[in-house]
Input
Amino acid sequence: MPEPKKLFIETLGCAMNVRDSEHMIAELNRKDSYALTEDVSQADLILINTCSVREKPVAKLFSEIGVFNKKKKPTAKIGVCGCTASHLGEEIIRRAPSVDFVLGARNVSKITEVVDTRHAVEIDTDYDESSYAFGEYRSNPFKAMVNISIGCDKGCTFCIVPATRGEEISIPSELIVQEIGKAVATGAKEVMLLGQNVNNYGRRFGTHEEEIDFTGLLQKVSRIEGLERIRFTSPHPLHMDDAFLEEFASNPKICKQIHVPLQSGSTRLLKAMKRGYTKENFLSRCAKIRALCPEAAISTDIIVGFPGESEADFEDTMAVLEEVRFEQLFSFKYSPRPMTEAALYEAQVDPLAASERLSRLQARHTEILDEIMDAQLSKTHAVYFDELKPQGKVAGRSDDGKLVFVEGSEELLGKIASVRITKTSRGALDGALL
Ligand code: SAH
Ligand code: F3S
Output
């Protein structure tokens, strides 16, 4: 047997990118044999799976290509993949001729075609991969990530994703069930269903017709034997109808953790963002979640400094934080992106004012998080263990998504056990097996 080639892969951005990287590893291994390396200088193939949601990682890309190019073996190839590949296309090769090929976020299945074609550029955002059966590769055998849709139809005015990932197409439910079935057969008890807008599932399929919505998909997936936990990311607040929230609350396999991306608490700005809901609609959805499922952990995304944001708009955002008490907060300073409407808006916010608001938001959230975590002391959680940690520890997640450590060894991996919390901190909990 020839030595496997060495593959270095850097993945930036969201969970969909993480899954796209797994798909690329699987596809490459269908054609050739690859072993992963963390050392660029050893690699035969270097892949950078990029994100373009904010400007910073894009700016970093070209300096990084320069660094990799200096360190790499002379024969090693460099491929730029993902959203920035879709967005900049050939310009990447013009600016950095050491890049061998460019592969868009919607063209992942073509990795084996471009890998040996010098200066290939595959970035068609109309390409429909929704029925493509990817090869199998999972970085963690105990939990599977499975795409349920590709692209996004929403057109939030700040967001570049619809331009890089194309229109939204749902993946046939039978394919999703098959893929989860395979992961369960090899040891996964948990699945994370992925899409830019998961609860819009079923609105449009590619070549295939099917009458099913996200609630129907959740019911179908929960009938898979041996699957014990279902998570999903990200839903959109606009599509959180009662039937979906009732399914979320009552289905015992669905983990009680839900991401409800707010973006802004100001109805005026939500309109300018084209989010399709008001502050009041958003609060009513969160109140419904709390009423149906008081134990659920709610997380969110917030952008500060969107064009035209006034102090009063920002106070609306702070008021929503105060009322919902999000457990996890992903907060960002607005970054103007090409191919988006908001980049053309006048009244861009002074970056210093935006930074100051971001710090205020994060500081208040940290206090709330500390209160939530401190209140976990002596509570019991069902923890699914999926990772060995140094110093005789094993890590897992509670049903509501908290990171929990206990003392133990590999026998715990892949098991769900009751844990009593003995120590709390902002990022994680320590506990003892019951
Ligand atoms: N629907 C996707 C959103 C992808 S972008 C999902 O489910 O994950 C992830 C987050 O990045 C968004 O929710 C938003 O809060 C943030 N974001 C998107 N565009 C941005 C921009 N131009 N500036 C700052 N943050 C942005
Ligand atoms: Fe972006 Fe809005 Fe879609 S944030 S990914 S356009 S739901």
The first strand starts at residue 5 and ends at 11. The domain at 143-374 is CATH 3.80.30.20 (pyruvate-formate lyase- activating enzyme). Residues 152, 154-156, 159, 161-162, 196-197, 236 surround FE3-S4 cluster (ligand 2) (CB under 6 Å). The chain has 13 helices and 19 strands.
